Amino acid sequence: MAEVPRVEFTKGMKKTHTLLLPNMLPVHFKMVREIFVNFGYKAELLTNEGPNVISEGLKYVHNDMCYPAQLVIGQMIDALNSGKYDKHKVALIISQTGGGCRASNYIFLLRKALIKAHMEYIPVVSLSMGLEKNPGFNLTNKMLLQAFAAIAYGDLIALLANQTRPYEIKKGETNKIIEKWTQIIATKFANNSGYIGWAMKRNIIDITKDFDNVKVKKTDKIKVGIVGEIYIKFAPLGNNHLQDFLESEGCEVMIPGLLGYFLYSMQNAHYDKEYYGGFKRKFELPFRSAVITIVEQIELMIYKNVAATTSNFVLPEGFKHEKTLSKGIIDHGVKMGEGWLLSAEILELNELGYPNVVCAQPFGCLPNHIVAKGAIRSINAREPGINIVPIDYDPSTASVNQENRIKLMLSVAKEQLDKKIEEKASHNRARSVRSNLNASVAARTKLDNWEL
Amino acid sequence: MKLGLDIGSTTIKCILIDENKNILFETYKRHFSKIQSTTIELFNMVKPYLENNSVELAISGSAGMGMANRLKIPFVQEVYATRVAVLENIPDTDVVIELGGEDAKILFLKGSLEVRMNGTCAGGTGSFIDQMANLLNIPVEKLDDIAKNYTQTYSIASRCGVYAKGDVQPLINQGAEKSDIARSVFESVANQTVGGLAQGRPIKGNVVYLGGPLTFMSQLRDSLDCILKLKGNCPNHSLYYVSLGTAYLASEIFNLDKVSEDLKIDGTRCKYNAIEPLFNSELEIEEFQSRHAKASLKTTDPTTYKGDAYLGIDSGSTTIKLCIIDKEDNLIYTKYQSNNGDPVESARLFLIEFKENYPDINIKKSCSTGYGEELMKAAFNIEYNVVETMAHYRAAKHFDPLTDFIIDIGGQDIKCFKIENGVIDDIFLNEACSSGCGSFLQTFFDALGYTPQEATKLALTSRAPVDLGTRCTVFMNSLVKQAQKDGAKVEDIFAGLSISVVKNALYKVIRCNSASDLGAHIVTQGGTFLNDAVLRSFEQLLDTKVTRPSQAGIMGAFGCALYAKHMDSVEDIPSTFIDLDHLRNFFHKSVSTYCKGCTNNCHLTINQFSDGRKFTSGNNCERFVRPEHFIEDKENYNLYEFKRNYIRALKPIENAPRGKIGLPLALSMVELMPFYFKFFSELGYEVIKTAWSTRLTFIKGQSQIPSDTACYPAKLVHGHIQELIDEGIKTIIYPSSSYNIDEHKGDNNFNCPLVAYYPELIKHNTEDIINHNITFIDDFVSLHDRKMFVTRMVEILKQLGTFTKKEIKKASVAAYKALEDYSDSVNLQGEKIIEKGRSKNMPIIVLCGRPYHIDPELSHGIDSMLLQLGCVVVTEDSLSKLVPKSKRDVLNQWTYHTRMYDAAKFVTTQEDMNVLQLVSFGCGLDAVTTDEVKSILAEKGKIYTQVKIDEIANLGSVRIRARSLLEALKEAK
Fold first, then answer.
1. Mean pLDDT, all residues of chain B
2. How many Cα atoms within 13 Å fall on the side-chain side of residue A426?
3. CB spacing of A397 vs B757 below 8 angstroms
4. Where are the domains of chain B?
5. Tell me, what's the ipTM?
6. Quick one: which of A157, B14, B191, B830 is 20 to 30 A from B725 by CA?
7. Do A1 and B939 touch (CB under 8 A)?
8. DSSP character for B196?
9. Domains B307-391+557-585 and B827-972 share a fold
10. Minimal Cβ distance to A408: which of B80, B706, B939
11. CATH number, residue A401
12. For residue range A121-147, what is the model confidence (pLDDT) as tens digits?
């Protein structure tokens, strides 16, 4: 095979070609698509699922390659062959991280797959920090700013929605608010507002209020966190709709957001400097420090405003705190895949009252041998109450096996929850007798729920 | 009363208890995937104990989840149920080990509750034992009895049933005692349970054994006792603990008549993923079958034929194929049968029968091929032997001279070759993992209670075949289970399995997308293609028509017979083939021993024949097999050997002022050993490095491995660390690093995640390090920046004592020098070896791997085997420096990989060099590198050969690959 020729995304294509985006996080990426549209691109989010996606993936990607590669590429080829698009009028976007993990090779694998599928003329655009350039595709500062805002909004919406949906009285209400706000934010972006400063703050408060106003019946639910390899962790296509499954089993789910992963990636350059010496580009580190500071501030601003609006939601403390958590468990030098962040997220979830954790990864995920399965023992040694179940995903694993494992974790979780409820109840009985207070039952129940 | 139902992968167990938890009734039934009807049967057995047929009911078990959901019956997770039952009945239990049909579990009850279940890839369970019993042709109930008479055991890969099969089959073929194999199977299950599941947490105290295999197999319990060094308790009702716990937790009353009614309705629903049927009408089936009936070889009637004939024997993994042809290549007689675990005896009986029945036919020349090729040749004095790929090609070519693609799916292997200009151009063989072959189908047919003929017939009629993907047998079990749960009929499963076999061959082994990738004249061979469902699915998926000889199953033997005839025409040697008298009196026995020729202690099987001759197999050198070919100074032919000796020769300084430190010879440290050895010697330490790994190294560390899907090189690290600890070393150095040496040839100089961070994992999973008995230094430091290395080391070594910066700098200079010396001598020796190869006209094989693959336990002596086959062997790193930096089609960011690309590039410029790439199973990065190396070679028309290695210790399939490569090269000349 000759060298794979790179088909560029030319300036003309911006008008004629539709960019197809993989859908890793349903809420976030919807807004990201809107940003592309606002900046004059035609863009569409891929939502096709089903067995054909997997079989196309198996057909065109090396079967020992990790599952996300098979899914993302399978989804793209499946979409291209669906007849929905003019194959000569589309381009594909794929992210390229450049880390030490095999995921950095996705873009090359995609190009190889296109050649095999005789669609080598379709341009592939790298979504990266300047690893590859295309004349027709230019991430302007404004776009980047809006994209960050979209991530921040997405994290917030997901955070609030996940704490509301399991308790809502009118089914579907929470999802309607998600829909409503992704639309509003997109429109605001189109009008060049809503992604910085006051406007952002106002939106945060309004979003919070909307979710807070959903009528809920708070019950004792098992609280489960999801961590893992980034695609499998977030994408329902990758994790067989894990969140839906957990919610249908009567759990409340928390998934640490994407902003944390971004900050983790930025931060690693500093640890690299510490361990391996200087950088070629002089301004790399100061630039990264500045970005981290700004994003951390935004993060804190968000939580502050939510907290000022209502006390009904459990809020993380932010990246600055999070990154201290994995100290003594896993070294900050471990930076491939989810690296040290994964342990930090598990410990953070535990602090926030989500001691039950599903750690989701592709079958044979290299970094996760170390950072997930390798670190569980140390995490448990420090926090014996954490109930972790690692789950592997691959194209042919029967979901019944995955669900069975998760159910085991849930049985143990249920036992712990029952014990807690029992302890609390007897504690409350004692207290109410002692103080002889006529506190209303309703108020007490509410309090209990939040403390659990 | 309470009823607990445990619906497992193969059986349903049920137990009825009264309010005081007394057991009233217990029983179990194999469900043969008819879960609904079996459940109803069990209900009927329980009803006499009940009032109004009502009872508090709960369901557990992996196959019961769906049913429970649909019928709204409370579901109890099975491990949880076990725990409840154990805490109730044996409250002082520390650890529970429970093996089931497809699950293996360990529950740690004391301290923090921990539950371990087998990973999706681990098959050391009941069905694994079934599979092995099947392979040995022993009813599974007898396996235990037979195992009691063992005298020695073999190492069988315990990671997964498929691998174990790869180990057991050669043992059978080599004639090892069944009792020894049976016991070894149990030991491998015990090893898998402890090694795969314990994950570093020690199993001690009161241990309880539960589940079918442990209840019924005393030898399995004994094996576990031996490994754990304790006496486990297998309580009464040990088979029923899951159902017992489930019964304890049952609290909702159900009427069993009502539930039975619901179950009957339930069985008709269908919601699994169905794919296109194989045929849409009877007519299509007829058309298809009559078309293929045309492809048949001419036959000669043996009762009338007189004169010379030629014999071909293909001794495969599970079957033996024999073929006798006349002078016009017509078939006189063929035989295709299971080898019943004893191929020599099977062949002998056939030959006696043939010679007695047809005394006028004279077998003039004979030839053997297949796994048992050498054994057959030795046993019956067969004149020729040929590598099986070549035998198949010869057969296909005879059949269709224009053949440009052959696919052969046999009992245990898939062989595909592409032919260009009459020469085998590309070879695809299945790896130990992709086991979608004949024996795989056979296993499922047997499990579901059908003969292959019945199953095939059924499959053709399926309206909605199940989509089963392409993974290995262990995965397939659970998928089949799920499909059955979802209402798939047996014909849909058979059709789905057949399609999966083809998909596996196409997408995993050949990795093609369309028929045009393969060729215009495709010939399908192998017994598996006699299954019409497989053949149809092959044509359907590729949208093409292929040729299937109606004798597809014996094409290897036919090719051998043709070869024997061909050789008879080109050389005039006397026939040596065994005569009838000798056949009648022939017997053989095999003895297993360990070679004492060198320190490798290879495992040898010595076959002794009745006439006093001996046949030795199993060792990795020529010392006993062909002493005349034995090479004493291996390092002058084999760069792997040279490297090993170089590192072996590193000697610690004497009277070291600072005491001892230990370095593990594994992963990154293999290549960096000369560096760190020198560095710490210069600093005044007596450096103790571990020796090259053996199987024992793995076993020493296996209970500490947290991730059972990590690669074998990584898993071995635990053993090396443990060896250092056992030697009394108190300080171990094993640095982490994201970055490797920068050779300025790629886009970056990363390590792979495992090489980079395995020290971190060791820190978290080694008992003595967690307890601070050992000073373990795993800090991050890279060699690529010399100044930074010193800065970091000044910081890191503060943990050990006071060192001046000057001291460290001086040591580092010496260390860098030592590393350069090592690299220079490797390069120089590489040149010498190439020269030697050229002067002696030996093929030069570049054994492309990672630096750590020189460990003999990792490469399983493949380098020595190549030497045996008459090649010289060099390494990737001795050649990579010879080409300039160039752009690759992939992100070229790992130092070790860059070398492979560059070495491949260099090979394309050398007529007499070829690449054999070593790939460790589970190495995700090699999904990238294999494709790239292959395309670099393909660009210049070089044959690419890949060998996947894991714990498997048998070289059989590797030898086929290497021999095929060499044969192909010879024919190309």
1. 86
2. 5
3. no
4. 2-266, 307-391+557-585, 414-546, 588-619, 640-823, 827-972
5. 0.86
6. B191
7. yes
8. I
9. no
10. B80
11. 3.40.50.11900
12. 999 998 876 677 888 888 888 888 888
